[in-house]
Every structure is written in structure tokens, then in C-alpha cells.
Write a structure and sequence with these properties.
This protein is mainly beta and 97 residues long. It has a domain at 11-17 and 36-95: GroES chaperonin (10 Kd Chaperonin, Protein Cpn10, Chain O, Roll). The protein contains no helices and 8 strands. The strands form 2 sheets. A 6-stranded antiparallel sheet has the order 6-7-1-2-5-8, with no helix packed on it. The radius of gyration is 16 Å and the shape is elongated.
Length: 97
């Protein structure tokens, strides 16, 4: 049975993107000191309400590639895969090609 986590409030579920350590031809790549800490948005919460009760939706959407802080977030394991749960405020930005 597949589990699906729907984040609460302004939280975002992210699967971290791990850069490949090997090329297609099998050459091992050295670990880079300036690796980018990024992830793909898997699920988003409904948003939050301000003091007046107005709904503030999350500005991200599923499938966005985001820049993540080095520390923070909550690790979540679902069906053997590792995900991280962040508040929308903690995400540093989105990455585009």
C-alpha cells in the first residue's frame, strides 16, 4: 500500500537531488566542494492564514527544483525513500534551466 504525505500548513515535502558520482561511461567523479544543495518538491501543504483569516497559498508547486539550506528540515522516510520536510520560509529559492 503506497503512502502519501500531505504536508500541513506552509510545509513543503522535498526529495533531495544527489549528484551522480559516476559518468555514463563509468568514470568516477571526485566529490566537489561547491556542490549545490537542491531538491525536487514532491508535495505541498495548503498554505496558512494571516491574522485577518485570509488564506495565503504556497508559492511553490509540485515538481519545482528548489535550493535548500545546509541545515534544517525534518527527515521523513516513506517506503524506503528519504524525504525532507521544510517550511516554505526556509527554502532559499527555485532553480531554473
Amino acid at each position: 500500500m503506497a503512502k502519501r504525505l500531505i504536508p500541513a500548513f506552509n510545509r513543503v515535502l522535498v526529495e533531495k537531488i544527489v549528484p551522480s558520482s559516476k559518468t555514463n561511461t563509468g568514470i568516477l567523479l571526485p566529490e566537489k566542494s561547491s556542490k549545490l544543495n537542491s531538491g525536487k518538491v514532491v508535495a505541498i501543504g495548503p498554505g496558512i492564514r494571516d491574522r485577518d483569516g485570509k488564506h495565503i497559498p504556497i508559492s511553490l508547486k509540485e515538481g519545482d527544483v528548489v535550493l535548500l539550506p545546509d541545515y534544517g528540515g525534518t527527515e521523513v522516510k516513506l517506503e524506503g525513500k528519504e524525504f525532507h520536510l521544510y517550511r516554505e520560509d526556509d527554502i532559499l529559492g527555485t532553480l531554473h534551466d
